[in-house]
Task: structure prediction
Amino acid sequence: MSNQTRRDFISNTGKVAIAGSTGIFATNNFTGTMAKSMFIHHVYFWLKNPSGETDRQKLIEGLQKLSKVKTIKSFHIGKPADTNRDVIDTSYSISWMLIFDDKAAEESYQTDPIHLNFVETCKDLWQKVVVYDSVDI
Amino acid sequence: MSNQTRRDFISNTGKVAIAGSTGIFATNNFTGTMAKSMFIHHVYFWLKNPSGETDRQKLIEGLQKLSKVKTIKSFHIGKPADTNRDVIDTSYSISWMLIFDDKAAEESYQTDPIHLNFVETCKDLWQKVVVYDSVDI
Result:
């Protein structure tokens, strides 16, 4: 990437924007190719058997396979941090955060055979799923 | 960044890992300096006056100032996407997604004067806040 291109990424905060001027996704510590927009698909899973390590591992392995869907730009598989202020929901089992370029990429993910297979294989593991889809302001 | 360093980021999915082998945060379209771990702090705000553009803009401007906290590695300010499956919560007003290197960086953010000023300045704008803190599995 040229210095000129790289300079284009510098935001007012001095962080490096990777989501374009319409979006705000910035970082201090890397440069990257510019994304025109961002679509964040954040899913929280509550396992039927949250204390069962086997079910947790099955879901994690399912998500690792699911991460290979081509339209996924970025992903993170997480668990609740050990923070506990009253506004924090720590009751979920697994966090699955995906970043797509746009809604079309997320819609393609929803119908991707890898995603359909994940749902079929793992749907009996969770009792509840909550999804928040966010786009650039 | 050297090619050797860059190669170190390639994950099994062919995506570029930016959260280290213990975490999973990968992307297809940029290379970056490696983070040892990730702490995702995702906050959803419900405005008292969700139809009021003035309050929405005040919150967005407050978050833009808040983004200057030094320990924030990456951030995104979002709004609900126009998706509407039954598992999707589209009722919130603004999404505030932060990535920190670790819990210590997030704790520092909580007590940063910029954050304390944001809460003091903007706390009357929202009726509800839900936070999900996630760390690498």
